[in-house]
Amino acid sequence: MNHYLNGISLSSEAPTEYNEIIFGAGCFWGVERKFWQLDGVWLTSVGYAGGDIKNPTYEQVCYENTNHVEVVKVIYDAKQVSIYDLLKVFWECHDPTQGMRQGNDKGTQYRSVIYCSSEKDLKICEDTKNKYQSILLAKNYDKITTEIILAPTYYLAEEYHQQYLAKNPNGYCGLGGTGCALDI
Length: 184
Known about the structure:
alpha+beta; two-stranded antiparallel ribbon
């Protein structure tokens, strides 16, 4: 299975000098589009992570109690785009205070998560979370519910979900942020 926009195999290993991070911020279609558009992002794919069963299907994630999240894996060249650039997009593209939902999309699969590939990235993510929390509290938002941990196993989603909004430009995207900017 190849990336619809750039032709790279979705099962490719990241080049050794590249980094990867996994984000969950609601329906993975819109979240993926936010990241594939960034210069320095080498590859994006959508999948499932953080749950209790191996190799889940979309139907299982949506209709069974798997505890998986719809996520986007981002492989990027840190010389062209920093983790801070990615985190700014992540924090601003959704409401990280909503718990097990984003807008009208409800369920554990829509919760806010960051799955990191290193302890260094964990610290950076926590620091930006704390900074964004201050901004949100000043605007009367609740506490951030985003889970930030080292990356669990990532399961690639079905082909029809990959780069869905590139294949279906008028497809559903319920993504909506808080309107609060994060300067980092």
